[in-house]
Description:
There is one protein chain. By secondary structure, this protein is an all-alpha fold. The protein is built from 10 helices and no strands. The longest helix is centred in the middle third of the chain and has 18 residues, at 89-106. The two termini are 26 Å apart.
Amino acid sequence: MANKLAFEAVDRTLKDIVSYTQHEAAHLPFGGKTILMGGDFRQILPVVRKGKRPDIVLATLNRSYIWADCLVHTLKQSMRVKNQTVEGNTNINNKTFNKWLLQMGNGTLPMVSREDEEEPTWIEIPKQHCVPVTTDHISDIIAHTYPDFINKWNDEVYLKERAILTPLNDTADEINEKMFNLLPGEHSTKRSSTTFPRMNKDMKKNNAVPMTTKTTNSFKDSALHE
């Protein structure tokens, strides 16, 4: 979820742009434009560097002046659980997990605290919702999430029902690499172009920094294709 300051910046920008021709827009939310925003306060809140709970709460959208002008629509049913195609024990486990997630979001789960903390801010995840791991955690998670992957790697329904989430790009790359190596057939890698035009006089005049192939290949940003 984005910081409330990002939404407020968009609000002020649209007011400035639209009010150039429509003066009354300067007093309307987002310059009178309809904005559709999506998010879940039960999930990942804005990240505040070195911030504590009060800082994170103050950074959320519902603590912004914009919130008073928002019309909130909420989902009443878990479409993931309703429309799933799995059956048997897996279906029951998914419903149990969904119920546990709702309890966590509603704040009704018991809280625990660590030895150096006064306020309990932690919850214990039930063992049935955890993946048993050995020394190779990633391989264990892959085997648990994608059982019989070697025979079902091209099964569209099988793949749509599963996903592994991670907050770090490096971990995502490692997971992708391991799963890629499980695919049958010969592997090949098609990389993007990493060559740059030669430095000309204008570039040197503007103090442009020459880029090498080694430098570009070192970038690991999620928005850049390798």
